[in-house]
Amino acid sequence: MRRLKVLLFLFITGVVIVGCNSQSKSGNYETVTFNGLEFSIPKEWTQTPIENSKDQISYKPDFGKDKYGFFYIYSYPYPRNVYKSKFIDWEKNTYKGIFALSDETKLNKNMTVLTYKTNFNAIKNAQLPDQVVQIIVIDDVDRVLEVSMDIPRDYFEQNPSIFKHIQDSLTISK
């Protein structure tokens, strides 16, 4: 009986600790709403806005010395069969001509995650930083939204939970 009490106490303590940690972790995110799309991104990413307009919202997160990144959302006011991305070459599976498609994941029927990585074979400039571009293409009834994250590869690989959190938080409302 005594062992059961000790185990119960340890279990309750563990649940409380895990619960407190998850709350503080969610406190590090800020909810952003744009053209009916709601999602949460790390608060520090929102500290440096670049542009907020009816067709675009963008931030420039600080990833440290000599590292840069961007977070964009573009809104294209026409359906997918008319939609042409500004930067994605669908036939060559490239982004801006220098990033090669490395992964494509369907989140649900109208959300697809495309992950591109720097293709050093396609460029002459070896000075180009090693970046990952992750784009979430969202097909809505009468428009397409692109959520783009251009980030250092090491940050992307060391923080997969951040990108999973962003993907999981995406919701579309009218």
Task: Note down, in words, how this protein is organized.
The protein contains 3 helices and 12 strands; from the N terminus they run αβββββββββββααβ. With 174 residues, the chain is an alpha+beta fold. The protein has one domain (30-172): Mog1/PsbP, alpha/beta/alpha sandwich (Protein Transport Mog1p, Chain A, 3-Layer(aba) Sandwich), CATH 3.40.1000.10. The strands form 2 sheets. It has a 9-stranded antiparallel sheet. β1 and β2 form a beta hairpin. The radius of gyration is 20 Å and the shape is globular.
Strand count, sense and closure of the main sheet?
Answer: 9 strands, antiparallel
Find the count of extended strands (DSSP E, 2+ residues). Answer: 12
CATH fold category name: Protein Transport Mog1p, Chain A
Beginning-to-end CA distance, first to last residue = 56 Å
Please tally the helical runs, counting DSSP H or I stretches of 4 or more residues.
Answer: 3
Can you name the CATH architecture?
3-Layer(aba) Sandwich
User: H/E element string?
Assistant: HEEEEEEEEEEEHHE
Helical/strand content category: alpha+beta
Question: Could you tell me the mean pLDDT?
Answer: 81
The largest sheet has its strands arranged as 3-4-5-11-10-9-8-7-6
Q: Detail the poorly predicted runs.
A: 15-25
Within CATH, the superfamily carries the name Mog1/PsbP, alpha/beta/alpha sandwich
What overall geometry do the principal axes of the alpha carbons give? globular
Q: How much of the sequence is in beta strands?
A: 35-45%
Q: Helical percent range?
A: 10-25%
CATH domain class: Alpha Beta
Number of domains: 1
Radius of gyration: 20 Å
